[in-house]
Write a structure and sequence with these properties.
CATH architecture of chain A: Orthogonal Bundle
CATH class of chain A: Mainly Alpha
Keywords (chains A, B): DNA-binding, Transcription, Transcription regulation
Domain HTH hxlR-type (chains A, B): 11-109
InterPro entries (chains A, B): HTH_HxlR, WH-like_DNA-bd_sf, WH_DNA-bd_sf
Oligomer: homodimer
Largest interface: A-B, 59 and 55 residues
Protein name (chains A, B): Helix-turn-helix domain-containing protein
Distance between the termini of chain A: 57 Å
GO molecular function (chains A, B): DNA binding
Radius of gyration of chain A: 17 Å
Structural class of chain A: mainly alpha
Number of helices of chain A: 7
Number of strands of chain A: 3
Strand order of the largest sheet of chain A: 1-3-2
Order of helices and strands of chain A: HHEHHEEHHH
CATH topology of chain A: Arc Repressor Mutant, subunit A
Chain lengths: 127, 127
DNA sequence: CGGCATCCTACCCGATACTG
DNA sequence: CAGTATCGGGTAGGATGCCG
């Protein structure tokens, strides 16, 4: 496979989608947003993800320089995640993607409510 | 799983990433761009993809209303793919994603050269 | 030419249990 | 609290071959 018509692995779009194209990563980024968020908060809000997967995704996002993991050597332990500038730069792009999807599929519900649920103390009962 | 903290499947960002987050779809969209492109051309340019996968991705993109498949009942058969407006609307977003990646990883090479290779008759020998 | 059918592999994702 | 370790299923992606 010598003369690839394009260098797949060096295409920025491919790289970006590789870093972000997983099932949960965009959501994680959007949920963290401009806050410092503890692992437990993420796990509580995104309780559809297993903790292992959440950990995995967070680690990969950290490796890709999209977020920062701060570990406090306390008891009980505390870990806070926050976006890097690189991660923050994604938010407007994700917004566009949301708009794009919503434009062509008005059934979608926005994720912002989720983020609110994070930053508000409330939430739990649904009906 | 009653009270999901957010409706995963109705989050527009999730939907968008589901429709686009695969390994090749963004590339396909960017390669087709504003042209009508035949299957063979796509397969030739993106010869790192197996034809089966290429077909699969094209079908899914068609199902998601991102591109259109036109089949000409000729001999030899001819099939042309082109983006819908929904697909075209993605291009600027992908551009932003490219810029984002390139900004934080200048090693990336742009895909535009690829597209050129499609729309120019030339190309083949690399060295 | 532009597929589809078949088979196979890798890995993403998840459940569960255990640890500092 | 915030993980790791282990096991395993489902599916995206790929190689190959046949067909209208």
């Amino acid at each position: 496979m010598n003369r690839e018509k394009f260098a797949y692995s060096s295409c920025p779009l491919v790289k970006a989608m590789t870093a972000l194209g997983s099932k949960w990563k965009p959501i994680i980024v959007c949920v963290i947003r401009d806050k410092k968020v503890r692992f437990g908060q993420l796990a509580a809000i995104m309780d559809v993800i297993s903790r292992k997967v959440l950990t995995d995704q967070l680690r990969e996002l950290e490796a890709d320089g999209i977020l920062i993991r701060e570990e406090f050597k306390e008891l009980p332990p505390r870990v806070e995640y926050s976006l890097t500038q690189k991660g923050l730069d994604l938010l407007p792009i994700f917004s566009l993607l949301e708009e794009w999807e919503t434009k062509y599929d008005p059934q979608s519900e926005v994720i912002h409510s989720v983020v609110h649920s994070l930053h508000e103390p409330v939430l739990t009962e649904k009906d």
